[in-house]
């Protein structure tokens, strides 16, 4: 082989080896970049999750001060005339407060727990309104373990009491209902009040709070609607069945 050809062959091999080395270096750099990107994405997702959980915890643990003041006043008025009922009301208030502080930890709670809180809340409010507050609860026991946002039904009921029962001499008649199929859960609170529009709801409002929690928990799959039906206002909450 001529000397020039031999030198050219060695040059080709060195060039080929150099090309392979450069390719391996680039491949390693690319793998490292992908790993770093995935790590950053995982950290970002974890940060978003922690932020959402913190916001959810803050939203779910709110109990309006006016409710506490009204309840304490009702308890004080019961002590001289009906101390047993006053004691029961204290127990129900403690249960409601404990649930509001702890129920948000799992994000969702069994419907049976939510219904107990709703009953306790209605019983507490009945110490103030007496026969002016009339209610029925329609929820089959087969749905006891269905998961719902904590204080969701309670928020809807509180809205009816605050804007209907407390505003009229005749009080309010409220019906609470729960149903579900394989895909979605439906919670309803129906009252005989004049109704309202969701467009008028502000973030500070109880229903505004609930809308924020729905968005955090379900995104666009969680829905809150208001409709008029047979002279009643129907507030409906729907979300995926988990």
Indicate the low-confidence ranges by residue numbers.
56-61
Strand content is 15-25%
Q: Quick one: overall form?
A: elongated
Provide the residue-averaged pLDDT: 80
Quote the distance from N terminus to C terminus: 77 Å
- Going by helix content, strand content and strand pairing, the class is alpha+beta
Order of helices and strands: HHHEHEEHEEHEE
Total helical segments? 6
Helix share, percent = 55-70%
Please tell me how large the radius of gyration is.
30 Å
Describe this structure in words.
With 242 residues, this protein is of the alpha+beta class. Helices cover 57% and strands 18% of the residues. It is built from 6 helices and 7 strands; from the N terminus they run H-H-H-E-H-E-E-H-E-E-H-E-E. The strands form 2 sheets. It has a 5-stranded mixed sheet with strand order 2-4-5-7-6. A hairpin with a 2-residue loop joins strand 6 and strand 7. The chain is elongated and about 90 Å long.
What is the topological layout?
Blueprint: H1 3-60, H2 65-81, H3 83-102, E1 109-110, H4 111-129, E2 133-138, E3 147-148, H5 152-163, E4 172-180, E5 184-191, H6 206-218, E6 223-229, E7 232-240
Parallel strand pairs: 2-4
Antiparallel strand pairs: 1-3, 4-5, 5-7, 6-7
Helix pairs in contact: 1-6, 2-3, 2-4, 3-4, 4-5
Provide a short characterization of the protein structure:
This protein has 242 residues and is α+β, with helices and mostly antiparallel strands. Helix content is 57%, strand content 18%. The chain is elongated, with a radius of gyration of 30 Å.
């Amino acid at each position: 082989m001529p000397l020039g050809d031999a030198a050219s062959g060695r040059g080709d091999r060195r060039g080929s080896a150099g090309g392979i080395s450069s390719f391996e270096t680039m491949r390693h750099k690319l793998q490292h970049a992908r790993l770093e990107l995935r790590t950053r994405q995982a950290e970002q997702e974890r940060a978003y999750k922690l932020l959402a959980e913190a916001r959810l915890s803050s939203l779910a643990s709110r109990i309006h001060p006016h409710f506490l003041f009204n309840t304490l006043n009702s308890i004080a008025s019961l002590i001289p005339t009906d101390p047993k009922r006053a004691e029961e009301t204290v127990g129900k208030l403690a249960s409601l407060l404990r649930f509001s502080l702890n129920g948000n930890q799992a994000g969702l709670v069994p419907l049976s727990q939510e219904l107990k809180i709703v009953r306790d809340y209605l019983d507490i409010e009945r110490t103030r309104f007496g026969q002016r507050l009339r209610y029925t609860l329609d929820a089959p026991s087969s749905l006891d373990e269905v998961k719902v946002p904590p204080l969701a039904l309670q928020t809807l009921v509180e809205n009816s009491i605050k804007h209907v029962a407390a505003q009229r001499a005749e009080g309010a008649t409220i019906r609470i209902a729960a149903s579900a199929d394989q895909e979605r859960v439906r919670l309803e609170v129906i009252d005989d009040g004049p109704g309202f529009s969701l467009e008028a709801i502000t973030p500070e409002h109880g229903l505004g709070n609930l809308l924020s929690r729905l968005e955090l928990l379900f995104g666009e799959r969680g829905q809150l609607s208001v409709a008029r039906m047979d002279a009643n206002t129907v507030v409906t909450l729907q979300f995926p069945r988990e």
